[in-house]
């Protein structure tokens, strides 16, 4: 069969004289063009018969009502020009492909996704036709593609083949350009991939996405976590009380006393409370009018202004609309605390069940186990995986937190679960689901008449979390760039969008980041939560048994490794320790090379450099371990591990003094808090002993050595040594004063 004969297409009930090339079909005649065995050009769905036994019937269906990311469908009138060329391209591929083979039936789904990604992007940027895809426009699309791919799937990385799907339609537009141009679809001006192949672009995109989802910048994460934790205390209790507006407890009383004024005199009358909207609204107004918000410890005023009759005039919002905002704030704060301190995905969060266990009185699904050392209670929650991946269990445990055995405090995430159960209590009887998170379509205020509630969708919760930023986390004072930027002006988008560029994947990354190293700027409750989670990882191995969390940890470990090397190259953050010095030497040449590069390109080159070197990294609060020199890993020397088995640190034997002399040890600014504390403790102890004249025997030598070692490392990573010395002097002075009093 010649190409020419394949190009001739058949009409329904064709006769030989009706055969004609595709491009001779006018737009008016398209309804007659049969594109597959079962479908004609204008059909809503094009259907092909599966060619392999056992394939689903649906595998060959292409439904053109593809939903674009702006919420429109490809079949909507505003997308008619895009739909027309998309159908023509597909018809050419099916009827007259340039490679003579055409796409396999099983690849129909991949075309659907390819069209969805490219056409969504074109729609967002106002492009309608392939000829508008100039090299600049294509390179803009390629730049956005990693974000598009990551935003629309649950996993946190993109494979080369997934990235190739995003390029598929561009490739086809170029290979089929001859027939398309004849058919009235002008081609792209040049090959969209230039001198490189689509495959190498796909590979590059896949590499790029490995570092794409960054943890929230500290400048954003810290105020967000602090505010979310703040809501979980007194404000949440106040908001739960405020929900009497919905509960309307008076409605169930037999009768109520009301004051009526008759002939200038007040009389008390008893009457039924009334369940109709008007009396309910009167009661709600009266209740809100008199509601008193609490004053938080250390404050002189209540944390929220009264919701009385002046509220609307001064704030432009009715008191009931404000109650809904406060309800949403507590709900979202709970969700952020649970997701942000467990690392679970939004779909797992939405899968948590409502209620308390009648036996343990813990939120449903939560259990307490004793840690391996017996020192801690470990709170775990079991959730069902929304999406199972090959080899993973259907249910998985998430660590909600730890507490020392003798403590009565519950981890933040457990508190959040209890609060959510109480928060939803007025609506629970009307819920048609056993899920904890439920929703209605109540608009701005609560419906006073309780209506059916269904399970909340991940999308609704994500929207709620974005609103939490907008309403409660003030990002207006953010500088243009974060302290650890890997892109120019990385905070501008946060400031300008008021945090609405947030995605829930970021919470997972931030979780891993803070488990590696708790940031002291976090509020004490959050610090403690992450500190305990860090223990869960290192001392109990609980986190290590959840494969999803390990993926996040590994990705963040890789990002942190890249960041450490990047900041060293850029001269932003010195590193100390033997491995630190080795990295400095190895990257010295790059510092010069990167001088004039844009930040994002320098970052990309650093990622490539670290990958080439095959650097793996392990964290602890006091150091970064890069076990390149396996024969000199001191923690394994202690345990006499054969060199061939030294794949990671020996957690049982490693400790700060041992690591500090190891060839694989490096520290940077992240480890300053640990070494500062060590310096102060040892130096003060030594100085006190010196004052007492007890150092000559040598028994305090170890304190001196430790202080000197810590001081040397701190100096190298740029710690404020003068401030530390002041602290030492002050402590010694206070000791002296105390001694005189006694
Ligand atoms: S002793 Fe410390 S730095 Fe050295 S290999 Fe072990 S954990 Fe890493």
Could you characterize the architecture of this molecule?
This protein has 742 residues and is mainly alpha-helical. Helix content is 48%, strand content 8%. A 3-stranded antiparallel beta sheet has the order 7-8-9. Strands 12-13-14 form a 3-stranded antiparallel beta sheet. A hairpin with a 5-residue loop joins strand 7 (366-370) and strand 8. It is flat. The structure holds iron/sulfur cluster (SF4). Residues 625, 627, 633-635, 649, 654, 658-659, 662, 664-665 line the site of iron/sulfur cluster. Iron/sulfur cluster binds next to helix 23 and helix 24.
How is the secondary structure organized here?
Layout: H1 3-7, E1 8-9, E2 20-21, E3 45-47, E4 61-63, H2 80-95, H3 108-125, H4 135-151, H5 160-175, H6 177-182, H7 198-210, H8 218-231, H9 234-242, H10 244-247, E5 256-262, E6 265-271, H11 277-290, H12 309-315, H13 319-342, H14 346-350, E7 366-370, E8 376-384, E9 395-404, H15 412-423, E10 438-439, E11 454-455, H16 458-472, H17 492-497, H18 504-516, H19 524-540, H20 547-569, H21 578-594, H22 599-613, E12 618-620, E13 623-625, H23 634-639, H24 656-660, E14 665-666, H25 672-691, H26 701-716, H27 721-741
Antiparallel strand pairs: 1-2, 3-4, 5-6, 7-8, 8-9, 10-11, 12-13, 13-14
Helix pairs in contact: 3-5, 4-5, 4-7, 5-7, 8-13, 9-13, 13-15, 13-16, 13-18, 18-19, 18-20, 20-22, 25-26, 25-27
The site of iron/sulfur cluster has 12 residues, from helix 23 and helix 24.
Quick recap:
Helices cover 48% and strands 8% of the residues. It has 27 helices and 14 strands.
